[in-house]
Structure formats: structure tokens, C-alpha cells
Write a structure and sequence with these properties.
This protein has 3 helices and no strands. By secondary structure, the chain is mainly alpha-helical.
């Protein structure tokens, strides 16, 4: 395993990639998931303020006591709109 996470690609131009470039990008993302378990998307155009606000709300939710989080649990594992599911 590599000692540092490498930059895969600048995703700001993904819409104009040729088919072979998109295939390579998908392979690179798959490899990142297999080797690291995650990847980070950059140059996506989402304002930093929105990201910070969303992160704050997510942190607030996961800091709730387990019993309170369970109030939001859905009974169905596969559902188009769910807030929380303890798998």
C-alpha cells in the first residue's frame, strides 16, 4: 500500500472527458476504494460554506445519544428516503 494518498484527477472537467478517459477515471476511483476505502472529490463547485454547514449538522446528529438517533431509524433497509438506519 502506498504511503500517501495520490491525487487521481481534477474532476472539474469530467463532463468533457473522452470515453477512454472516463473509463480510466472509474478504474482509478475503484482502485482508491479497494486500497483506501474512500476517495475525496475536489473541484466539484460546491461552496465551502455549504460543506461546512452540512458537516456541522451531520456532526450534531451523530453526537446525539443513541436513543435519540434511533427515533429517526427506518424499519426498512432499502428505502428511497431514509435518515438513519443502524446496520
Amino acid at each position: 500500500m502506498a504511503s500517501a494518498i495520490e491525487t487521481i484527477s481534477n474532476l472539474s472537467s469530467v463532463k468533457v472527458l473522452a470515453d477512454h478517459q472516463r473509463l480510466q477515471l472509474m478504474q482509478d476511483l475503484g482502485k482508491a476504494c479497494q486500497e483506501w476505502g474512500f476517495f475525496m472529490v475536489v473541484n466539484h463547485g460546491i461552496p465551502e460554506a455549504l460543506i461546512e454547514a452540512t458537516t456541522a449538522v451531520v456532526d450534531e446528529f451523530f453526537d446525539l445519544p443513541e436513543a435519540e438517533k434511533m427515533e429517526y431509524q427506518t424499519k426498512h433497509v432499502i428505502r428511497p428516503h431514509q435518515i438513519w438506519n443502524q446496520l
